[in-house]
Specification:
The complex is a heterodimer of chains A (113) and B (116). With 113 residues, chain A is mainly β. Chain A contains no helices and eleven strands. Classes of the chains: A mainly beta (113), B mainly beta (116). At the A-B interface, strand 4, strand 5, strand 6, strand 9 and strand 10 of A face strand 5, strand 6, strand 10 and strand 11 of B.
Chain lengths: 113, 116
């Protein structure tokens, strides 16, 4: 099973709202990732977790707050977002060693009004 | 620093025709190379990967890719394209991160259109 699930599929939020995106995998992977993808562009890495610890933060604004409660779950908490944050948010997971093939979820389509 | 170039932004082929999508990479060591496909509004699906060994790798959906170190290329091919292959294709190179996990560097993607 190479499935990564993400909820919700779609999310519309105002600039003052607080919402969370959820990602789950049961492949025993110990590395998990959040990406942001704008239309017609490749995914941009936001965060990397390895063994439930934040490994990389690619200078993401603090209005995005990741959380890894356990090895199977990854959350992205959203607060005071801007319209330009509207995008497809992708979660991925991999083994923690090279080559570490990443498996992606279907994404959450976020619209910030 | 690693980088990936996909020189073709758009490619249109007729159904049943052969396909080749180009990918060139820049990486100091042995590269770990991937091809992903993305249908509109969907996540990325892994088509195939190259780590070492046989330079011709087979993937899902009838795709294959050939690693050519001398040309720093990893081109994706399919002998006969189906209408359902219309999608965005991303080539990527991977490297391990010091703090754990690994980083994929993606090319800008190639949009494939299939004419019936």
């Amino acid at each position: 099973d190479t499935e990564v699930t993400q909820t919700p599929k779609h999310l519309v939020m105002g600039m003052t709202n607080k919402k969370s995106l959820k990602c789950e995998q049961h492949m025993g992977h110990r590395a998990m990732y959040w990406y942001k993808q704008k239309a017609k562009k490749p995914p941009e890495l936001m965060f990397v977790y390895s063994y439930e610890k934040l490994s990389i933060n690619e200078s993401v604004p603090s209005r995005f707050s990741p959380e890894c409660p356990n090895s199977s779950l990854l959350n992205l908490h959203l607060h005071a977002l801007q319209p330009e944050d509207s995008a497809l948010y992708l979660c991925a997971s991999s083994q923690d060693w090279e080559p570490g093939t990443q498996y992606f979820g279907p994404g959450t389509r976020l619209l910030v009004l | 620093a690693q980088s990936v170039t996909q020189p073709d932004i758009h490619i249109t082929v007729s159904e049943g025709a052969s396909l080749e999508l180009r990918c060139n990479y820049s990486y100091g060591a042995t590269p770990y190379l991937f091809w992903y496909v993305q249908s509109p509004g969907q996540g990325l699906q892994l088509l195939l990967k190259y780590f070492s060994g046989d330079t011709l790798v087979q993937g899902i959906k009838g795709f294959e890719a050939e690693f050519k170190r001398s040309q720093s290329s990893f081109n994706l091919r399919k002998p006969s394209v189906h209408w359902s292959d219309a999608a965005e294709y991303f080539c990527a190179v991977g490297a391990q991160l010091t703090g754990g996990g690994n980083k994929l560097t993606f090319g800008t993607g190639t949009q494939l259109k299939v004419e019936l």
